[in-house]
Each structure stands twice: as structure tokens, then as C-alpha cells.
Amino acid sequence: MKGVLVDSNIILDIFLNDLKWADWSESKLEEYSVQTSLYINSIIYSEISIVFELIEDLESAISRAGFQILEIPKEALFLAGKAYVKYKRRKGVKSTPLPDFFIGAQAAVLDIKLLTRDVSRYQSYFPTVKLITP
Question: I need a labelling partner for 35 at 20 to 30 A (CA). Which of 65, 101, 115, 133 fits?
Fold first, then answer.
């Protein structure tokens, strides 16, 4: 599978017109949209929903942006759990797996790039994922 999984921070940069990051995020989306498919998953969908009052508006924005929604495969869910165990052993404080674990695991299992501004957690727990970062 080819494509780029787009983290919610990139999409929110644009939807919220972030003064520092919107231009960079938009240019990266434009660059990769002409080369390959752009994907989000249900976790990212949920995270970006915060800026919309109606699901129809979110659906329209996703469609206009050209994102395709990928289901998270069982292998990625399993890997996310393993990454969470590693996190807890390193004295992580969260009591449930973090959204980034699901996102990173999916990119790792599907062997697709991840467009994000969050580098450290992905590099630490999913070192095989090819990151597109600032």
C-alpha cells in the first residue's frame, strides 16, 4: 500500500488556521496529495471532529481535502497495545493507550509514511515508520 497517514495535528493546523504551522502543513498536504493517497483513521477522525458542530460539515471537509478513511487492522491494534506496555514500563503516566500509539502502529503495520509534527513518541515506539516532519 502506498500513501501517507496524516496526523490530526496537521489537519487541525489548517482547520484552525494555526499562525505558526498552517502554511507548512498545507504545503505538505498539497505536495503529497499529488504524489499519493492521503489517509486518516477513526482516531484521527475523532480528534479533528472537535472543530465541527455537525458531522455533515466534518464529512464535507474530509471529502474536499481528499482524505480516505482507513480502518485500523487488528495487527496495528495489537502493536499499539505492545507500545503502550513499553510506555508504561518507562513510567508513562497515562492509564489507557494514547491515540498516537494507534496511529503509529497503523503506519508501521501498513508500511506507510506518517505526516506529523509529533516526532518523539513516534520515533521512540515506532522506529520503522517513515516520518514526514518539519
Answer: 101
